[in-house]
Q: What sequence folds into this?
């Protein structure tokens, strides 16, 4: 709304002008008394009125009439000081020009100070009283955890709330060296680096700890949450106060994200090598609308490819990532194609038309129970679809294809895992063939575990169940999984791509494995998410154990028992050297598998799968029919 459209603005401006005039006139009178107590009457007598007029005249360009007293800032104080200086100079010149005598040589300085004080002190007192009144009604006491910069930003925003939601009693710094200092009049009382004793140093325990430092994550955050939980103190995170948000939502606290508790080192990526691989090249991403595929598109867009083709079978998912890339990199040429990787003629036509130089194959059916109930569909997408994309890319002259694989391909107990292992074998065989011939498309396979927050994964499921009031469902108390963030996983995928297609010596048929750190117990994850929501496990929210679903394992593995992880020269990347099958053998089996799938013969398809992946134990005792031996 413009000034002219606000009917109350002229009234407020008139009140401001009137108050400033009265204060200025009083300041002029007080200055004469301070400069010469024996002759306190201003000379000439109308000088206070001239002071009021000068403030009105000068205050308009300085914007004093439009000031909102409750939100007076440091910049406003500087403007008021400048107004006082200019007004004092004008009045002094007026007195001298009219032939009057100054009450004392120090009068101009006294007048300046009096004018500055009269303009600033009432406004500051009003702001402080409003802040104190706003906090008096706050039901909860809170302390801030973070550095001075972010704490100051939060306190400034908090002070501007008409009804402050919390009464801030002090601060907890990140390091001990800040203890004893003050920020916005609040003492720094403790430091998180003191460990479990940090909260015991506080005389009065707050109801809430508010994390203001975005970088405060990992083990220290876990220790703080553990200590706070033992003392019935909630922990929340302050929002990013620099982002645009509706006024009523700007101060809304957020639960601690489970991603913040992952104690993962920041891996240094070779961005120059990634740029050399991607910049100026045509890039195709399958499964572009999925969790991994969409993050691949975001990160690829940052390396200035010549053009990017987004391919997905879901129109809605494709529309979402297309819109995001359009906003993220508006000048990047892009194509969006609705297609199924199982449709060989269509995929070949797309590749022939686009002529991709780099292909990132993320399309897959990944949910173990669903694939277990739809075995042939899993094979069509994960195995046959991979061959379709690889063959089409190679025929179109692609330089590199990157296959996104999974830890479930190691000693698979599910069709999903076994179908991805067979896809790995095909990519391995293609890459070995290209290496030996010295030409052809290189294939890089990257294997990793769960990514936090991916579609259909356990974290979004737990969040949904929490919103419904529980219970949180966990298959087994002993179940463990590896986790990393999707951004970190995709960054390492791009790192592996640069290594795999380079001249570095890597084992024939080697598969890149992301260093996933230590596995996490799913039941511990559930309990942690309940606590992060400010609730108590088994009291406010129940945890229900449902039993293993078909094809699930208690523990996922990143390496086969016979494999030894081979370190690479790049942090966060390991190399697996699984059993290798030559291209002719794996191609013949996949061809036979394709025929079997077309015929709908699930039993024979599973037998073929187990022949190629003998560690697949989902159907023990299953033997191939005599004709296939």
A:
């Amino acid at each position: 709304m413009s000034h002219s459209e606000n009917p109350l603005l002229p009234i407020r401006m008139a009140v401001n002008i009137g108050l400033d005039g009265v204060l200025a006139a009083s300041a002029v009178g007080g200055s004469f008394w301070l400069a010469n107590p024996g002759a306190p009457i201003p000379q000439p007598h109308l000088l206070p009125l001239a002071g009021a007029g000068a403030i009105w005249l000068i205050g308009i360009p300085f914007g004093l009439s439009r000031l909102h007293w409750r939100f007076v800032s440091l910049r406003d104080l500087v403007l008021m000081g400048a107004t006082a200086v200019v007004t004092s100079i004008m009045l002094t010149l007026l007195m001298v020009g009219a032939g009057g005598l100054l009450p004392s040589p120090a009068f101009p300085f006294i007048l300046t100070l009096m004018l500055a004080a009269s303009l600033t002190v009432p406004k500051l007192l009003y702001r402080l009283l409003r802040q104190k009144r706003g906090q008096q009604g706050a039901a909860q006491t809170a302390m801030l955890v973070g550095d001075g910069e972010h704490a100051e930003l939060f306190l400034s925003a908090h002070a501007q709330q008409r009804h402050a939601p919390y009464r801030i009693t002090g601060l907890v710094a990140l390091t001990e060296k800040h203890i004893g200092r003050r920020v916005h009049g609040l003492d720094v009382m403790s430091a998180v680096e003191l460990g479990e004793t940090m909260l015991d140093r506080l005389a009065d325990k707050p109801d809430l700890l508010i994390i203001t430092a975005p970088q405060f994550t990992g083990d220290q955050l876990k220790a703080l949450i553990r200590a706070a939980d033992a003392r019935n103190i909630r922990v929340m995170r302050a929002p990013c106060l620099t982002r645009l948000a509706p006024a009523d939502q700007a101060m809304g606290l957020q639960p601690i994200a489970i991603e913040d508790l992952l104690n993962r080192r920041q891996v240094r990526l070779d961005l120059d090598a990634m740029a050399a691989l991607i910049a100026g090249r045509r890039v195709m991403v399958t499964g572009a609308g999925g969790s991994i595929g969409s993050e691949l598109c975001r990160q690829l867009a940052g390396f200035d490819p010549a053009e990017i083709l987004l391919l997905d079978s879901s129109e809605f998912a494709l529309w979402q990532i297309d819109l995001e890339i359009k906003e993220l990199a508006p000048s990047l040429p892009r194509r969006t194609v609705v297609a199924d990787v199982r449709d060989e003629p269509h995929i070949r036509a797309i590749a022939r038309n686009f002529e991709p130089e780099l292909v990132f194959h993320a399309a897959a059916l990944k949910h173990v129970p669903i694939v277990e109930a739809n075995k042939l569909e899993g094979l069509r997408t994960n195995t046959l679809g991979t061959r379709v994309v690889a063959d089409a890319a190679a025929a179109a002259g692609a330089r590199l294809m990157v296959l996104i694989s999974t830890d479930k391909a190691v000693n698979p107990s599910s069709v999903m895992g076994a179908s991805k292992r067979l896809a790995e074998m095909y990519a391995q065989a293609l890459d070995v063939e290209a290496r030996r011939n010295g030409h052809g498309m290189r294939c890089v396979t990257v294997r990793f575990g769960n990514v936090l927050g991916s579609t259909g994964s356990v974290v979004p499921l737990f969040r949904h169940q929490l919103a419904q009031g529980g219970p949180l469902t966990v298959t087994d108390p002993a179940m463990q999984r590896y986790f990393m963030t999707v951004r970190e996983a995709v960054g390492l995928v791009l790192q592996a791509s640069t290594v795999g297609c380079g001249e570095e010596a890597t084992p024939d048929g080697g598969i890149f494995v992301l260093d996933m750190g230590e596995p996490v117990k799913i039941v511990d994850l559930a309990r942690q998410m309940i606590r992060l929501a400010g609730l108590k496990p088994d009291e406010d929210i129940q945890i229900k154990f449902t039993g293993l679903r078909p094809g699930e394992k208690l523990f996922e593995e990143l390496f086969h028992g016979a494999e030894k992880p081979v370190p690479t020269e790049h942090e966060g990347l390991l190399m697996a050297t699984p059993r290798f099958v030559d291209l002719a053998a794996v191609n013949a089996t996949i061809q036979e598998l394709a025929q079997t799938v077309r015929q709908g013969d699930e039993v024979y398809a599973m037998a073929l799968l187990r022949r190629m992946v003998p560690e697949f134990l989902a159907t023990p005792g299953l033997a191939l029919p005599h004709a296939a031996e």
